[in-house]
Amino acid sequence: MASLTDIRSALKATVKSEIPELNVYSEVSDVQQVPAVVVMPAGTSLSGMACDFNGAMGRGMDVWTLDLYVLVARTDGSLAQRSLDQYVTGSGPKSLRQIIYQNPALGLDDGTDAHAEGIREYGGSFMTAGIQHVGAVVRLTVRTPN
Question: What is the pLDDT of residues 100-144, one digit of tens each?
């Protein structure tokens, strides 16, 4: 079974191998360079939990609901939008959805399976380290067996 730390590390390695210029962080407050992705347990999910410990057969797997906060610099509105679009679109060389789809195990060999559910808060405004950002949230579900 992969821990939350294992999943974050595996996501970082998977994303960085496909999009080397995309910085991956564990906390929004850690963001120092954009473009960036911040991997956080979801505040709310369909089940109302960031992790369901009773995924299958009463403790057969953990089901994590994670939010990937995708942040780009807000220097020029149209440039920021084009930059953001390439990460949150359904396919393409910089599409997070496509990268997860092509690498559902995230490099873990324990039966972990990840998939992107969709995006929300597109165009959301974030502020960290005194740099304005624009972004979106990609919802990810990760199932990991016990």
Answer: 999 999 999 888 999 999 998 877 766 655 667 888 999 999 998
Residue 85 sits in a domain of what CATH number? Answer: 3.30.70
Burial of 88 (C-beta count, 10 Å sphere; 0-12/13-18/19+): buried
Measured CA to CA, the distance from residue 25 to residue 18 in angstroms comes to 16
Distance CA 27, CA 8 (A): 11
> How many domains, in total, are found in the chain?
1
Q: Which long-range contacts (CB under 8 A, 24 or more apart) does 57-61 make?
A: 59/146, 60/145, 60/146, 61/1, 61/143, 61/144, 61/145, 61/146
Q: pLDDT (tens digit, 9 = 90+) per residue, 71-90?
A: 998 877 678 888 999 999 99
- Tell me the whole-structure pTM to 2 decimals: 0.85
Give residue 41's domain range. Answer: 4-145
